[in-house]
Amino acid sequence: xxxxxxxxxxxxxxxxxxxxxxxxxxxxxxxxxxxxxxxxxxxxxxxxxxxxxxxxxxxxxxxxxxxxxxxxxxxxxxxxxxxxxxxxxxxxxxxxxxxxxxxxxxxxxxxxxxxxxxxxxxxxxxxxxxxxxxxxxxxxxxxxxxxxxxxxxxxxxxxxxxxxxxx
Length: 167
What we know:
2 domains; 5 helices
């Protein structure tokens, strides 16, 4: 990405130079540097080539920014889905089964999305080295529910931290 940025900067500088030099100066007087190339053919070609390279470089940079931004926005959406899921009450075995299915589906999707944003983040979400307690107002249905709530709280905490640093 840096190389593309440098190329874009060089092309922009050359375009500026071409636009600011007089007819007898540096770029416009190519027959001085490349013998046998008629000036009226080479200069427009180089001008158009530099514009094309600049446009391609700008498109690549913009496209990379949009593509990189997209997973971060999706992580934010998944975080908004995860918080109500974590906070939802579970009072029966059937509710717990449904909640567990939704949890594993959410976890898989958030890790896949994190992988698109940052492999390092995805690795941290997949294998948690710490788990903090879940919010005090939530009453777990059983010990497995409490463990999953802790896992979910830690995933939400790490995703929030990543989103805040990359916005």
